[in-house]
Amino acid sequence: MRPTFTRSYTERAGKFSNPAARQLLEVMARKQSNLCISVDVTLKGEFLEVVDAVGPYTCLIKTHIDIIEDFDQDLITQLKNLSSKHDFLIFEDRKFADIGNTVVLQYSKGVHKIASWSDITNAHAIPGPSIITGLASVGVPLGRGLLLLAEMSSKGSLASGSYTEGAVRMARDHRDFVIGFIAQNRMEGIGSRGFEAEVDEDFLIITPGVGLDQSGDSMGQQYRTPFQVVAEGGSDVIIVGRGIYGGGVDIPTIQTRAERYRAEGWKAYEARLK
Ligand code: S5P
């Protein structure tokens, strides 16, 4: 059987029943972009300015909505307008990690009402399957998708080995809602009998810790290049943050960098299809 990562995004889109996964793969093919941009800035005005500037180059805007100091409902209205204008999906990087009842409230209520605007969100596997059933009770009726954190990019991460295997097993039991993983490697076949190529399952692999010019930061982040991540590692989407908006640069520079990462990510995808 042909391994998942050698199939085109378009071919794979049709196989997902989850609407968010399907839409993401379709946007990726349409825009020739497997670049998710993490806009980790703390002021609404700057956030919207960067999102509007990089919108054309990205398939997915990743947010940490709780770091925005002057958050209001209008930010969400404007973000959704930009997502229609530029044709990208929205991923709130909330990293839920609590019991089912609590994550239901955190996902749907409070100031941010994440489920009402975020196509995709993510969760740690640490609480066990009830975190998925809790989040799914809110997200599935809205057509949302969930990524489980199976591995992390930070030095000394404890998410490896049997923990990663446990996360994959949890995902397999909830295929309607769990669309893939935040991970550094492909996950098909992990924790099951066969080798990757023998298992016909498809999970999206979304990979942070991507940079072309740095190997890490002073706080344990570790970077690999788009080629290492997509062509060699078989990941589907690269997440780039400071590599694009970092260093206090102007908007044209941010756009030049976004296009550079888009082109590198796409080239790596085309290389692995061959
Ligand atoms: O393992 C992880 C998982 C995530 S979601 N490592 C990460 O770095 N992230 C997130 O990706 C992190 O919270 C940040 O928003 C982004 C990486 O940002 P960068 O500036 O280092 O590219």
Automatic annotation (TrEMBL):
A GO MF term: orotate phosphoribosyltransferase activity
Annotated positions binding substrate: 40, 62, 153, 221, 241-242
Pfam families in UniProt: OMPdecase (PF00215)
Pathway(s) this gene product operates in, as recorded in its UniProt entry: Pyrimidine metabolism; UMP biosynthesis via de novo pathway; UMP from orotate: step 2/2
Record has Lyase as a keyword: yes
BP GO terms, sorted: 'de novo' pyrimidine nucleobase biosynthetic process; 'de novo' UMP biosynthetic process
Keywords on record: Decarboxylase, Lyase, Pyrimidine biosynthesis
Lipid metabolism among keywords: no
Catalytic activity: orotidine 5'-phosphate + H(+) = UMP + CO2
Orotidine 5'-phosphate decarboxylase domain boundaries: 34-257
Enzyme Commission number: 4.1.1.23
Catalytic residues of the enzyme: 93 (for ompdecase activity), 95 (for ompdecase activity), 98 (for ompdecase activity)
Class of enzymatic activity (EC top level): lyase
UniProt-listed NCBIfam families: pyrF
Family: Belongs to the OMP decarboxylase family.
Descriptive protein name: Orotidine 5'-phosphate decarboxylase
Source organism: Rickenella mellea
